[in-house]
Amino acid sequence: MTRSPGLAGIGVASFTAGALIAQQIIGKSVRDALFLTTFSAADLPEMMIVGALLSLLSAVALSRLLHRYGPRRILPGLFGVSAVAFVGEWLLGFADTGWMTVAFYLHMALLGPALLSAFWSLINEHYDPYNAKRAVARIAGGATVGGVVGGVAIYSVAEVIALHDLLLATAGIQVVCLAGTLLMRVTMRPTREPRPGAVRPTGDARGLRALVRAPLLRNLAVLVAIGSAISSLLDYLLSSTASELLGKGAPLLSFFSLFWLSVALVSMAVQLTLADRVLGRVSLAKNIATLPGLLIVGAAAAIALPSLASYVVIRGFEAVQRNTLHRSAYELFYTPVAESRKRAAKALIDIGFDRLGTVIGAGLVALFLAADPGQVSLLVLVAVGALSVASLSLTPLLRANYIAALEGGLRDTALSTALTTDESAVPDEPTPPAAGALDEVAVPPVEPASVGEGPIADALRDPINSVDGREWLGGSAEAVLAGLDTLTARSAQPAVAYAIMLLTHREHYAVAFNALGKISATIAGQLADVLVDPGADVVVRRRVALVLARTGTQRGVDALLLGVADDRFEIRYTCSRALMQLVTRHPRLEVDRATTLRALLLERDHRARQAIRPAFVPDALEELPMFVAQPLHPATDHALDHVFTVIGLHIDRDQLLMAYRALHQDDVRQRGTALEYLQTILPLDVRDAVWPFVDQLAAPPPRSARAVLADLIRTTSVASRRR
């Protein structure tokens, strides 16, 4: 069973994320200042390419390690190796500054992305797709706070401590990250316990095969490569311009430390004020689309006004957005992916395709330098705009891939719980009558036209033999069956009224239901009048609604829509089920979306006022197999049943049923997948109306006293056997 995510785990993860990002900020500032002080800016593209190529090799190795051992076991080792390497580079600096600079640069290129990838792999494996949004927003908030701390620290010591000695500071922070990771192993338990006999996935779950066979992972890889290329281009643009204007050494370190401090401060403000609301309200694909969309505008503005200030703004905005909302949305895309595929592919994407993008960006810079050194800045900005357009075009594909991944998770849930669904909505006849009981009676000869035509004219022509119906109310079963056998579309309206009254009869209601159902299309007006009459018997109104489901006409739909807005929950509940039955049988019929939305809002208002009676018991005719299977929920959950039935009038019912079933499983991850699926596919107005009903299902259901007692007895008996 999945365990509910705890606040302690989120706190420790936030602290570790903060320390990790602080080290990244300090490391990047030291790396850039150290390299540009030791070497020329013209050497930067070559070093970027070398570091990227080495990272490609490390990505393959890390992918295999994660696939085999998982991030919980790999991440502490990575932090330990990184800390030792920083100390070794510091010692190397006493002998040769140039080699120390190269080693430090390559170290940052190799292990920097690996640490981030492994850390976020651990996070998105722990949380389900729905709860991950809140957890990731808080953990990313801790990361932005760490970025501010790192930026303040490096800016404060830029003029005091030598670049060489700052390598020891990075080693110390890595030790802190190591300690935080070990605490995470204690506070963040695995979300899934292995099933007995489970085997390690092979085949398409390994390496590049996972990318090729999973459209979501494939498109995420392309997105990462494009984003990395854009970052590389903007990095070169900012670094080369700053080194030309500011020189080398301490001034350059002060500039970069101030720049990254500003980025960290803005990132923290964005993360703490917007992340929860944006991730909860805006789809992941739209969050991803924001960055390339605004980069297109920023590149155009920088082309029009080329300056160091313009380059600071566009690079700073790119860093802020990529480190906050973009990064959070990107990580959340992985949550519905199967664990085996995720472990096999994520490191390749985060590191391999990130480094591939760096190679592309550096190669473009080298090409621009060779083609026209005087126009490099312009060419870089044009390339940034073009790559942003390509990135923007991926977002519709990502949304479709994400929904497909969520649906795949729901299908797995349905298969694992061995639930089946009846696609036929409702049986045509709740209680089949005797053969020939509903055959149409002969119609009397037609009188002259002046007399008129129709059931009323028939009654006027032959009042003695017209169907009355009063004798049905107290007659025997045989008499009632024989009388209803004469009820046809041309029966007099008073007879129909008596047949409707029989719907509340303890013994004869099923026969009356079948007889009325046969002629329901022609008496829809009478049925609608009874349905909306607040003074009529509630049982009769509910059963009339089910008769209207047999009409097969738009008039029946319109009448039932009036009932969905009734003041009584019993009537609303029955009418929604009848509507589902009607439109399932006759897809050509139209259900007004605005009316159903008002019905959902009405249900939400009733829930807020606690107007739904918990003692509500469905009618016998309503408990036949319909859209939602009754055994899935307790008797007090009919409001949720009703809400899902209304939603199913406009949303694909098969997928919605899978989500509904997943919401009633004990596994928090399965419920979270269903909630995230609903939050993604539902229109915003519908989602706002129904979310009070479904959001509470993200938490595990309360355990009964009997279940707790059973666990206690089982635990005690096991302990006694061990003694």
Descriptive account of the structure:
With 723 residues, the chain is an all-alpha fold. The chain has two domains: 7-190 and 205-416, Growth Hormone, Chain: A (Up-down Bundle); 449-651, Leucine-rich Repeat Variant (Alpha Horseshoe), CATH 1.25.10. It is built from 29 helices and no strands. The chain has helices at 7-38, 44-69, 71-93, 97-126, 131-157, 166-187, 207-213, 215-246, 250-281, 284-304, 308-323, 325-332, 339-371, 376-392, 395-416, 455-461, 477-485, 493-501, 509-518, 524-531, 538-548, 554-564, 569-585, 593-608, 638-647, 653-663, 668-681, 684-694, 705-722. It is elongated and about 110 Å long. Mean pLDDT is 76; it is low at 1-5, 191-205, 418-454 and 624-636.
**CATH level 3 topology of the largest domain:** Growth Hormone, Chain: A
Distance between the termini: 28 Å
- Figure out the total of helices: 29
**Biggest sheet descriptor:** none
Q: List the uncertain runs.
A: 1-5, 191-205, 418-454, 624-636
CATH class of the largest domain equals Mainly Alpha
Number of domains: 2
> Helix and strand string, N-terminal first?
HHHHHHHHHHHHHHHHHHHHHHHHHHHHH
Total beta strand runs = 0
How would the blueprint of this fold be written?
Layout (H helix, E strand, L loop, with lengths): L6 H32 L5 H26 L1 H23 L3 H30 L4 H27 L8 H22 L19 H7 L1 H32 L3 H32 L2 H21 L3 H16 L1 H8 L6 H33 L4 H17 L2 H22 L38 H7 L15 H9 L7 H9 L7 H10 L5 H8 L6 H11 L5 H11 L4 H17 L7 H16 L29 H10 L5 H11 L4 H14 L2 H11 L10 H18 L1
Helix pairs in contact: 1-4, 1-5, 1-6, 1-9, 2-4, 2-13, 3-4, 3-6, 4-13, 5-9, 5-12, 7-8, 7-13, 8-11, 8-13, 8-14, 8-15, 9-11, 10-11, 10-12, 10-14, 10-15, 11-12, 13-14, 15-26, 15-27, 19-21, 20-21, 20-22, 21-23, 22-23, 23-25, 24-25, 24-28, 25-28, 26-27
